[in-house]
Design brief:
8 helices; globular; Rossmann fold; four-stranded parallel beta sheet; alpha/beta; 8 strands; 40% helix; 258 residues
Length: 258
């Protein structure tokens, strides 16, 4: 690896932003948000798996989303991608993606928690359905943010409702966030769905506190790590997967390289 002082040029840097669901309109919206935050010299590739669920709203969806992330990282490695963002708040397949990738891989929940902890002593998460709150809570514990996250709140919006004008998504998210700030006595809001990325600026203006969208933060983190010449360690548990032939549906994912 290069020394931190030997900064790599951003021009032509390829960052693959993976929407783990199969809804093309959401992939496009996530791509627009990512492009807005990226350096002008970076190339943002917003992609989605060729299979899976139209929205990730539970543990079963999450399993297929993780496989879809692996599919897109494998393809990205073959295409010379420099770094990856997993644009789903469950960070599905994060550790598997890091095994496969030589460049950095950042999940948007991971990015959002880190950013919020630097901007406020406590933050609240505002997400979609109540059933997904436990997934977010597991990530809070896994990443070590129990002392910073003061609450996880559901808007009861389905993921695909975020794209529907009649759902009143902005008003419902803003109301939920206001309640969260008051109830938790927190100083920042982390948006708990990649589909909320486009609402971030409006929500921040409405609420008067930092509102963190993990997609844009993750893009900047990946961009910075690549620029510093830093990639995922290939020693220990993030070493490339041991070569073996998978069977059945998993055959295309066989890690046949050493």
């Amino acid at each position: 690896m290069r020394q931190a002082r030997d900064l790599l040029p951003v021009q032509g840097m390829k960052i693959r932003v993976i929407n783990p669901n199969t809804t093309a309109a959401m992939t496009a919206a996530i791509g627009r948000s990512a492009t807005t935050s990226a350096d002008p010299g970076a190339v943002i590739e917003a992609v989605q798996p060729t299979f899976g669920a139209p929205a990730i709203e539970g543990h079963h969806d999450d399993v297929w989303a993780a496989a879809g992330v692996a599919e897109q990282v494998l393809a990205g490695e073959a295409a010379g991608v420099d770094g990856y963002v997993i644009a789903c708040f469950g960070d599905p397949g994060l550790h598997a993606a890091r095994e496969l990738a030589r460049g950095p891989v950042i999940g948007i929940a991971e990015a959002g928690f880190h950013a919020a902890s630097m901007l406020a002593t406590g933050f609240s998460v505002v997400t979609t359905l109540e059933r997904t709150c436990v997934i977010a809570r597991h990530l809070v514990i896994q990443y070590g943010f129990e002392r910073h996250c003061r609450g996880i709140h559901a808007t009861q919006l389905e993921v695909l409702e975020l794209e529907q004008p009649g759902s009143h998504a902005f008003a419902r998210i803003a109301a939920c966030a206001r309640d969260a700030l008051a109830q938790d006595r927190s100083g920042a809001i982390v948006l708990g769905c990649a589909g909320m990325a486009g609402l971030c600026a409006r929500l921040q203006a409405e609420l008067g506190v930092p509102v963190i969208d993990g997609v844009t933060v993750a893009v900047k983190l990946v961009e910075s790590l690549v620029k510093l010449g830093l990639g995922t360690s290939k020693r220990g548990d993030y070493a490339l997967p041991l070569p073996k032939q998978y069977s059945g549906l998993a055959a295309p994912f066989s890690p046949l390289r050493g």
